[in-house]
Design a protein that fits this description.
Blueprint: E1 7-12, H1 14-19, E2 20-30, H2 34-41, E3 51-55, E4 58-62, E5 83-86, H3 89-100, E6 104-114, E7 117-127, H4 130-155
Antiparallel strand pairs: 1-6, 2-5, 2-7, 3-4, 4-5, 6-7
Length: about 160
């Protein structure tokens, strides 16, 4: 079987970019069981309620839903079990310091295959208040309208 190359997306957490201000992103490996790998190969996972937490100098991923493998038997995994994330020691130390600072959390943004290995993109993030969410939405709409108008002007279609 030829070795896989490139990046193939499994799941995205679009809600995280709306609910949080993303300060920094990291790529981490995951410690998975056999049936979890097979379920991910089938493209089934949900990052919606997921978060990462530091415990005993390690970073653990909580509440990420990888459903049971349909062809699995008694060896199937628990869908929402906590999973260990694999990062370099320096990255872990940096994240420990920043999350203990207060107001910052680790949220998963994307789950994907990279060269045949399951990877997760996590973000160091600060939660947004509801008025911040509305403000960010208004800014995005204004930028979209400006670019749309600039496109019209370039094409010579004035309103």
């Amino acid at each position: 079987m030829p070795k896989e190359t490139g990046r193939k997306s499994i799941a995205q957490n679009k809600r995280a970019r709306h609910d949080y201000d993303i300060l920094d992103t990291y790529e981490a490996g995951l410690v998975l069981r056999g049936t979890e790998v097979k379920a991910l190969r089938a493209g089934r996972a949900s990052l919606v309620d997921g978060f990462a937490q530091v415990s005993d100098g390690e970073i653990w991923l909580h509440n990420v839903h990888i459903p049971e493998y349909t062809e699995g038997t008694w060896t199937n995994h628990a869908p929402r079990r906590k999973r260990k994330m694999l990062l370099h020691r320096a990255e872990i130390e940096k994240l420990i310091g920043q999350t203990q600072e207060g107001g910052l959390t680790l949220v998963p943004l994307a789950l994907y295959w990279k060269d045949g290995r399951a990877k997760i993109e996590i973000a160091l993030a600060r939660g947004r208040k509801s008025y911040d969410k509305r403000h960010a939405l208004a800014e995005r709409d204004a930028a979209r309208e400006i670019s749309r108008e600039m496109g019209r002007r370039v094409k010579g279609r004035y309103r």
